[in-house]
Amino acid sequence: MPSYTLLERLLFPSVRLNARKLERRLSGKTVLITGASSGIGERLAYLLAGFDARLILTARRGDKLAAIKADIESRTGFRAAIDIFAADLREPEQTDALLAYVSQLPGGLDAVVSNAGHSIRRSVRESLDRYHDFTRTMAINYFAPVRLLLGVIPLLEKNGGHIANVSTVSALLLPVPNWAAYQASKSAFDVWLRSAAPELNALGVSVSSVYFPLVRTPMIAPTAAYKNAPAMSVEIAAKIVARTFYSRCRVYKPWWLAAGELASVLFRGVWERSAARKISRKERAR
Ligand SMILES: NC(=O)c1ccc[n+]([C@@H]2O[C@H](COP(=O)([O-])OP(=O)(O)OC[C@H]3O[C@@H](n4cnc5c(N)ncnc54)[C@H](OP(=O)(O)O)[C@@H]3O)[C@@H](O)[C@H]2O)c1
What we know:
50% helix, oxidoreductase, Short-subunit dehydrogenase, SDR_fam, KR_dom
């Protein structure tokens, strides 16, 4: 794994967590983390394990979750109670089983980190016989979190709870070629949650949308172009999500994103024409 470069320090500066505030928010509370077997969700589980909370870790790979639980529990300083629940959140019955499990917990549920996700990088031309790329990204990045949240909203309402959604900066910028399946599905849930947030706030449930840039996790490993691209560390990403528990901020964005959002409005035409020219050049060079 490349070390953190100067540019990365500038783009993704380190984050200070207020442990006292986090302790106050988490003490005796129950937090559900989806996608906890890897990357951001896994790192967040390690971070929150130092607090007096109950963590419910879910993902498809039960063996990975069990190994993470065992490793956390073998460390000094761990205080949380850790439950693991293996589920493929694209499967409605498995989500229902998770919801049934969460619903019977004596203290209910206080927070959900909607983090499980899947990315696909493929051009539309290479996807002509791969409609399933679009259904499977929508299944995990859109329908799964919608179904899960619909099930837990009554629990969160009861406890004045919190939802943190792990989104991507690309939901706020001009879409880039080759990522149509991923970007459309992440944007769909981002918009769903932004639309739902005022309703949820009125029920006493806070909502944070966390817009991450590239984060150095297994998700980006298959993309060769990202090997040396600037990326946020997974430790910083986990802290940013954890901070939303006490800040309850509506939005986290990297400091430089506003410039990108403005450029997305001003330069859509320029960007789309130049992207098309670049793709044509590549096609001709093949
Ligand atoms: N890495 C980035 O650059 C980046 C940037 C912006 C936003 N994000 C978002 O951050 C979130 C976490 O990604 P990551 O980078 O940490 O990737 P990751 O290391 O690949 O983790 C993805 C997690 O999602 C779980 N998952 C995938 N499909 C699932 C399914 N069908 N049912 C249940 N769980 C499933 C995976 O567990 P199993 O395989 O065990 O099921 C894994 O724990 C994603 O929502 C991603 O879109 C990532």
